[in-house]
Amino acid sequence: MSSSRTCLAAAATASFSTEQIGESATEEFRLAFKDESGATISPWHDIPLKNEDGAYNMVVEIPRYTKAKMEVATKEESNPIAQDIKKGKLRDYHGPIFWNYGCFPQTWENPNDEHPELKVFGDDDPIDVVEIGGKAIDMGSVAPVKILGVIAMIDDGELDWKVLAISTDDPLAAEYNDIDDVPESVKSGVREWFRWYKTPDDKPLNGFGFDEKFLNVAETEKVIEETHEAWKALREGTTDAGKLWTGTN
């Protein structure tokens, strides 16, 4: 099975299309990304982190109210979106996620770098994004978002930042400019969902750094920039890529 559609990042200089390979909910399923010429590209390495208007590009992996644990396959050639597999089985959340979930391209949480305050290492993935707008966004979309804050989740001893953001075309984007503008119910909802979501698999609760608080936009920008610089080093080959597919190894 193969199907395609086009998504356009507002104010970006290029459009990107996706092509489905294999049936949904199978190990063979892949969502490949292509540029305007039809050439296969990597959503991790070839889509810019930011647009000319300052909005960040979010690669949507898991649409709102869905359960399949989809992710950019960082170890596969061209990094298509695929469903995560654990212990030989396709991975699903035990209940739907209530927001759109994905990652920022051209970022990387370096597993070789210890955070100076939290004393944990990165999780070896692009930085995660939780989009809190009012509509579901299709998997594979490149959605321009406005960042609002970030929380430092500690998952199995690894640092796994979660950026809170809102789509630039959401009505609330005009009202939300920093983390204090976001209702406490939304912030606590995101934090508690990620605290508990692995417990049905007999995993421990996840923890959070910085007194479990979301950091503001200024601090979020610093975190994203640090992961962007780590990604640059990964692409340049000045840090160990391990089994990751970088397009240069």
UniProtKB/TrEMBL annotation:
An annotated GO BP: phosphate-containing compound metabolic process
SUPFAM superfamilies reported for this sequence: Inorganic pyrophosphatase
Highest rank taxon of the organism: Eukaryota
PROSITE patterns, per the entry: PPASE (PS00387)
Enzyme nomenclature, EC number: 3.6.1.1
Swiss-Prot/TrEMBL keywords: Hydrolase, Magnesium, Metal-binding
GO cellular component terms attached to this protein's record: cytoplasm
Protein name, UniProt field: inorganic diphosphatase
Gene source species: Leptocylindrus danicus
